[in-house]
Structures are given as structure tokens and as C-alpha cells.
Write a structure and sequence with these properties.
The chain has 202 residues and is an alpha/beta fold. The longest helix has 17 residues. Strands 3-2-1-4-5 form a five-stranded mixed beta sheet, with helices on both faces. It has a single domain, classed as 2-Layer Sandwich (Nucleotidyltransferase, domain 5). It starts with 39 loop residues before the first strand and ends in a 12-residue tail after the last helix.
Amino acid sequence: MHRFGLRAIYPGPNLSRPRKAHKKYPYLLRGKQIRYPNQVWATDLTYVRLPGGFVYLVAVMDLFSRKVLSWRLSNSLDASFCVVARQEAIDRYGVPAIFNTDQGSQFTSDTFISVLEAHNIEISMDGKGRALDNVYVERLWRSLKYEDIYLNSYETLGELQRGVDRYFRFYNTERFHQGLDYATPEQMHRSFVVEEPLPLAG
């Protein structure tokens, strides 16, 4: 089926199930002009089917440059791997003005939200069932899957880890984007960002 570009259709896991009674945050990006790096970051989850079951992938993206700032794989939907990816992005790049997520339980958990609030980061959340509210990360998943994952037969988490790492390095530094005037995300990010990360609040 891979040879002919076909994929078997299986019911996938629900990655956006909200935590009961979580605090509601508005969607802040509708009509917003994104003019510089670290103005808006976004994160999302996707899943990959391996022979042993589902594996889950989270990434944090800068929406101005489209650069993948951090990512993590996990074999469970526990919030911890999302928290690690969030913290790695902050440690490496400072803090954004706005952080956009969906309403999944990983991103509405106290451990994920508390650090954003501590740094006075505005929290934006997609409308329920509105994938277009996070369109750039959705496009990242499509690119990753159709340009790498569906073309390779990853058997183990370790193989997938190496493949995703290789692809995101290519995506950031070699893949030209029409929407960035044919620059790479790394070129776009570096053209606006000083070498030192933004100071953390608090």
C-alpha cells in the first residue's frame, strides 16, 4: 500500500479530549498580525502508528518563522512529555508573548499552564473542533508524515525518534517555504532574533 501512496484507515486516539472543568481561555489569534519571532508559539499533538501500537508526538513551533523549537515522543498521553517540550523551548529561546494550544488535557493541565502563567505569557486556546485555528502546526504534521513517516517503515520508537530528528533538522534548516518568501525557518528566525534568549519573567 505504501508503494501506491495508500494508507489503511484506522480509528485514531482522541488527542484533544479536554480535562473536566478546566479553565477556559479565549482564542487570541483571529485576525492577529504576527510580525516577529517569539510573538506567538503554538503546540499540538499527533500520533504515529508503529507495529507495537500508537506513539504520540508533540512539537512547539514559532508561528512567525515556522521553526520547530522543541519536540518530544511518548508512548503514553500523559502530560509530562508535553511539559518537557514546553520547558525545553523556553530554556532555549526565552518566552513568547502568546502560547497557543488546543483544549486537550495535556495542555490544560496545571503542570503545563502554571509555568505559562508564572511568566505572564498570554494563553490562547483553539476553539473546540477547529483544526484551522492551529493551521501551521497541522501543516507541519502533514509535511512530516507525507515527506518522511509514510515513506519509511519505522519499526521501533528509537527508529522513529531518529527519523523525526532528521526530518525536523531538514525542515528547520533546508526546507524552503513559499510563505516565508522561500527562506527556511532557521533563516527567518535568525534574521530577527538576537543571539541571547529573551529574559524570563519572575
